[in-house]
Amino acid sequence: MPLAYTHESDFRQERNFGQKISATFEFIGVHWRPLGRALLYLVAPLALLQGILTAVVQSRMFGTLLSSTYAPQSHDPRYPLAARQAILGATVQNPLYYLLIPTALLFASAFVLTIYGYLVCCLRPAGAVPTPITPGEVWAVVKRHLVVAFFSYWGLGILIVLGFFFFFIPGYYLMVVLSLFFIVRVVEHTSFYDTIRRCMSLTAGKWWSTFGLIIGMIGLLYTLMFSFSTIANLLWLAIYSTFLPTIEPGQITTIFVVVLTLFFTAATFLLYPPILLALAFQYFNLVERREGVGLLHLLNQLGQAPGAGPGATTYRPHEEGEY
After folding, report:
1. What pLDDT, on a 0 to 100 scale, did the predictor assign at position 92?
2. Which site from 2, 120, 236, 261 is most exposed, i.e. has the minimal number of CB atoms within 10 Å?
3. What pLDDT shows up at residue 214?
4. Contact 298/9 with Cβ under 8 angstroms?
């Protein structure tokens, strides 16, 4: 039985809300091993670096808060403001804080591009023999877009912040419209400005369906993650009750930050791929509804012989072959 979601025609289809969610989890069910391998090789090192930097910065921030809480002058009504200013000053003066921001953006760029780079490798023409996708193939796509994606995050962030500055409504509108930015960029190789225009064109009249898909996927995934969160909380309570009598408050803070960082890193790897893939299926759905690209591809392939591949067989005239 041939594998699903290994040719371009598997993606370029019109789908309703339920079909997009179903296609997302079907894709993950078929491709989770090679996709997970690509994420492990290309994204996990950056996730580890970001986790270490986040743990160090936040542990120092909580350490400053803890020392301020037990300070002798903490009974002063004006002290909470002074404590917050001390925390802000300690965070801003920490050089690792300025290293954490670009590292986080680089991690986000590599993560999104790895998901969509893998998907692009699946867009094979009809008749092509599906072969396992390697991390090297995905990396070829990632490195082609990585620098542009890194700076695009800054540009998109500025646009959304400006949108929220003007009555909030433009900010929410842009968040939904620009959710398709990276899949459009990776598939169509458009510039920053043209990608934004393309996103606005595709979501015209389909903003609410895109918004509903995002909300539906987030709600579904966070419901599934509730049990994982419960396990993480129980783990933290076990650590806290076990080591509380023997460690200092600052050490408790460090352990808490490390556990919390590990939890959010694991949650990122589990939660975000389905959301990104659902947005990809929404992109293909919108393109197909407006332009019928998938239908044109099928029409162009009429009458063409299937491509030969491993295991191909030559049949005699009286044999039916494979259909």
Report:
1. 58
2. 2
3. 94
4. yes
- How many other C-beta atoms are found inside a 10 Å radius of the C-beta of residue 217? 21
Which among 204, 162, 197, 158 has a CA at the least distance from the CA of 181? Answer: 197
Residue 230's pLDDT band (cuts 50, 70, 90): confident
Average pLDDT, the chain: 79
Number of continuous H segments (helices) and E segments (strands) in the chain? 12, 0
Tell me the mean pLDDT in the region 217-243. 71
Domain ranges for the chain: 8-144+200-297
Query: pLDDT tens-digit profile of 110-140?
Result: 999 999 999 999 998 877 888 889 999 999 9
Give the C-alpha separation, 147 to 112, whole Å. Answer: 13
What would the two tokens of residue 42 be? 């290309």
- pTM, two decimals, is 0.79
d(Cα 6, Cα 30) in Å, to the nearest integer?
9
Residue 134's contacts (CB-CB under 8 Å, 6 or more residues apart) are: 34
Q: Which helix (H) or strand (E) holds 20?
A: helix 17-42
